[in-house]
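Handout, page 2. Input:
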Amino acid sequence: MPIDAAKALAAEPRTGEIAWDRRDVQLYHLGIGAGVPATDPDELRYTLESRLHVLPSFATVAGSGSPGVISSLSMPGVEVDLARVLHGGQRLEIHRAIPAEGRATATGRIAAVYDKGSAAVLVMRTEAADADGPLWTNDAQIFVRGEGGWGGDRGPSGRLEPPAVEAHRTVERALREDQALLYRLSGDYNPLHADPEFAKLAGFDRPILHGLCTYGVTLKAVVDTLLDGDVGRVRSYATRFAGVVYPGETLRIRMWRGAGEVRAAVSAVERDDAPVLADTVVQHS
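Output:
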């Protein structure tokens, strides 16, 4: 079995120094669709260096995402084929506002390994801290198809009951044809998102969009629509990747207000509202 759960969990964490600047933040924001319309004051907070606010989901790519998901797949106890790997979910906890320029120590480890029968799930945790203390904790849930079935812990289901009322707000976000090519410049160079031949090997007609790009698009929509554009109000953000997104599609983002949180559901308009993000919760102040 390519995944040795005990060995993976016992492996020493990987620690590295990461750094980012305003250009990295701007590139990330452009990669998730910020800057439309280009002269809109609300968009300039994401694109103009003199008034830059950092969307918290930038934490998923800060320092080019290192130590990140791809590097963690080569940790002791883990040896997998990238064509079998899918990003199953993501949870981000923000401890402090992310500065537009910074340096931090990032520590990555495998926090859990679950046996789903037909797949293994790796929970890859990255914790970042700078001289002033913790900045964020990032958990990526990675599905490795065909690697389950050894009789291990199945782990939590994490499913939420969908809201029983009509969404308080619904917005649509059109994705560019080259959205994945632009987003990958922030550090995720998995060929699944750019190489048609590799995408076919993985079972897709064409390259798919990074799940974390959809994740960023959705958080921006929630912040801009229900949190008064204030990125500092976000405390945590979790989602389950329920389906693929193709560059050029339109995302329909439904949002429900709650006490200190926003629930969201995201679907692909052109494919009869096929679900792409589910169990999505933004906790906020």
